[in-house]
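Lecture notes, part 5. Sequence design as translation. It can be helpful to think of inverse folding as translation between two languages: the language of shapes and the language of residues. The source text, in C-alpha cells, appears below.
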C-alpha cells in the first residue's frame, strides 16, 4: 500500500519551486454546499459557493478481498483474508491554482493516428482555458513535428475558432508520427514561452510527454505537461474506456453488418472484417458482441491456427455446411505469428504489422479451392473510415470532461500526468503508470467468454 502511495503521487510544480505561492482559483464554481452531507438534496439558502476538489480526494479503483476458500461471503471475518485497495487521484478544479492566467501561454498538440473526438477535446481545452482567463492559446500543427518544422506556424486558438470543430472528425491541428527529439521540443517550448502543454496522443505520445516533463524539470522550467490519452483501441491501463472507442465500436458494427449482408446474400458467402487493435482486441470483441452477427472473432490475446482439424478454416467449412454463410471479425494485431515478419517500422519506430485480413482472405480462398467447395470470400477493412468519424454522443461527453479536467490539472500545478475515466470517475494518473504496457483483453474474463458464447466458436488450437 505504501508503494502505491509513492507510485501514484502526482508530480507538482512545488516539487521544484517549493516556495511558489498559490493563488485563489479564477474558475468560478456555481455549486452549493449541502447543509447536511447525508441529505445531499438539501442546500443552504445563503448560496455558499463551493465545490472544488480537494487534493487528497481519491477514486477507488478496486478493493480486492482475498478470502480463504471456505469463507462464506463479505461478512465472514476470516483471519486469512486480506483487503487490497487501489486508488487514483480525483480530477477536477482546485481552489488554489499555481499559474496566473494572464501570464499563461498554453499550447495543444495532437500526435499519432486519428481518433474520433480529437476536435472535441481541443475545443474543450480552449474553452476552459478562456474561462480561467488565459489569453494566449495556440495549437502546434502536425504533432511534435510542428515544434521543429520552420514552415509550420502556431495556430492561434480561441472559443470563436474552435466553436464548431467538433462537428467533424479528424484533428483541427493535424497529426503526425516521428519528429524532433525531446530536447529540441523543450528548446522550442522555451523559445515560444509556453507554460502549459496539452498533449493528445497514444502510448508513444505519452512517453514523449513524460520525457518533455522530465526535461522541463531538469531545466527548472515552470511548465505543466498534461496528457489526454487518445487510443481508439481502448488499451490504456487503469481506464474504463478512452475517447473514440465507443464511436469505433459503433462504426465497426456497421461494417460487420455490411459484411453479414454480403456474406448472407451470396452462395456460400464469407465476410472477413479487419478492425483496429494492435495489441488488444477490445474493438473486435465489443463490435462482435454488439453486432451479434460474427461467427469467428480473432484477437491478439488469443492464439489460433488457420489450418488443421481444429483450425479456423475447417470451422468455416462447418459453418458453410450448416449456416450457408459466415462472418469473421479479426483485430489487426491478431495472428501475427502466422505472417512473415517484415521488420519494417513507421516514423515513430512502431513495427508495421503484416495484413492479417488479407492473409485470411487468401488462405480461405485457397483452402476452399483445394477441397473443391465453392466459397465467395469478401474482405472489408473499415479502419480509416472509422478513425475519421466524428465522435458519437457518449464520446462527445467523455471528451468534454477530459478536456476540462486537463486544464484543471494544469492550473492545479500538476505536470507529467494524464487524465482518464477510472471506475466511473475522472482521475489524474502519473504518466509512467499508464504506459508501461498496453491493457489487454483477459482471455479468462467473463466478457471474452460472453463473446465466445455469442459467436459459438470453438478454440482454434
Ligand atoms: P497511436 O495510438 O495513434 O499509435 P501514439 O502516440 O502511440 O498514437 P506514435 O506514432 O507511436 O503514436 O508516437 C507519437 C509521437 O510520439 C511521435 O512524434 C513520436 O516521435 C513520439 N514518441 C514515441 N515514442 C516516444 C518515446 N519513447 N519518447 C519520446 N517520444 C516518443
Ligand atoms: Mg502507439
Amino acid at each position: 500500500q505504501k508503494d502505491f502511495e509513492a507510485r501514484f503521487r502526482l508530480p507538482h510544480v512545488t516539487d521544484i519551486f517549493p516556495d511558489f505561492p498559490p493563488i485563489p482559483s479564477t474558475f468560478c464554481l456555481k455549486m452549493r454546499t449541502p447543509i447536511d452531507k447525508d441529505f445531499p438534496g438539501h442546500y443552504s439558502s445563503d448560496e455558499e459557493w463551493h465545490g472544488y476538489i480537494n487534493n487528497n480526494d481519491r477514486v477507488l479503483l478496486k478493493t480486492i478481498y482475498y478470502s480463504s476458500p471456505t469463507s462464506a461471503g463479505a461478512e465472514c471475518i476470516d483471519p486469512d483474508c486480506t483487503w487490497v485497495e487501489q486508488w487514483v487521484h480525483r480530477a477536477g478544479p482546485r481552489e488554489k491554482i499555481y499559474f496566473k492566467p494572464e501570464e499563461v501561454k498554453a499550447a495543444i498538440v495532437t500526435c499519432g493516428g486519428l481518433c474520433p473526438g480529437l476536435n472535441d477535446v481541443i475545443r474543450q481545452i480552449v474553452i476552459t482555458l478562456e474561462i480561467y482567463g488565459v489569453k494566449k492559446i495556440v495549437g502546434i500543427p502536425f504533432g511534435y513535428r510542428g515544434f521543429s518544422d520552420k514552415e509550420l506556424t502556431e495556430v492561434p486558438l480561441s472559443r470563436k475558432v474552435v466553436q464548431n470543430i467538433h462537428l467533424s472528425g479528424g484533428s483541427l491541428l493535424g497529426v503526425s508520427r516521428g519528429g524532433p527529439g525531446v530536447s529540441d521540443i523543450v528548446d522550442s517550448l522555451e523559445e515560444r514561452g509556453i507554460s502549459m502543454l496539452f498533449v493528445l496522443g497514444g502510448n508513444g505520445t505519452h512517453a514523449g510527454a513524460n520525457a518533455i516533463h522530465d526535461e522541463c524539470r531538469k531545466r527548472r522550467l515552470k511548465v505543466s505537461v498534461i496528457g489526454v490519452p487518445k487510443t481508439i483501441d481502448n488499451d490504456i491501463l487503469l481506464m474504463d474506456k478512452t475517447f473514440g472507442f465507443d464511436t469505433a465500436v459503433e462504426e465497426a458494427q456497421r461494417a460487420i453488418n455490411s459484411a453479414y449482408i454480403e456474406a448472407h446474400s451470396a452462395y456460400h458467402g464469407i465476410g472477413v472484417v479487419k478492425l483496429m487493435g494492435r495489441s488488444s482486441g477490445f474493438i473486435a470483441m465489443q463490435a462482435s458482441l454488439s453486432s451479434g452477427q460474427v461467427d469467428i472473432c480473432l484477437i491478439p490475446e488469443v492464439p489460433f491456427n488457420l489450418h488443421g482439424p481444429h483450425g479456423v478454416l475447417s470451422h468455416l467449412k462447418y459453418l458453410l455446411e450448416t449456416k450457408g454463410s459466415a462472418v469473421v471479425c479479426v483485430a489487426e494485431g491478431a495472428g501475427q505469428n502466422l505472417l512473415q515478419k517484415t521488420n519494417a517500422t513507421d516514423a515513430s519506430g512502431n513495427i508495421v504489422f503484416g495484413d492479417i485480413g488479407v492473409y485470411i482472405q487468401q488462405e480461405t480462398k485457397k483452402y476452399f479451392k483445394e477441397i473443391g467447395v465453392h466459397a465467395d470470400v469478401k474482405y472489408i477493412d473499415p479502419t480509416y473510415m472509422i478513425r475519421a468519424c466524428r465522435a458519437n454522443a457518449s464520446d462527445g461527453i467523455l471528451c468534454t470532461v477530459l478536456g476540462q479536467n486537463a486544464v484543471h490539472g494544469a492550473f492545479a500545478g500538476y505536470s507529467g500526468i494524464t487524465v482518464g475515466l477510472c471506475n466511473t470517475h475522472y482521475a489524474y494518473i502519473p504518466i509512467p503508470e499508464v504506459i508501461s504496457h498496453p491493457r489487454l483483453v483477459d482471455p479468462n474474463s467473463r466478457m471474452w467468454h460472453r463473446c465466445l458464447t455469442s459467436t459459438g466458436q470453438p478454440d482454434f488450437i
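The translated text above is only one of many valid answers, since several sequences can fold into similar shapes. The first helix runs from residue 2 to 7.
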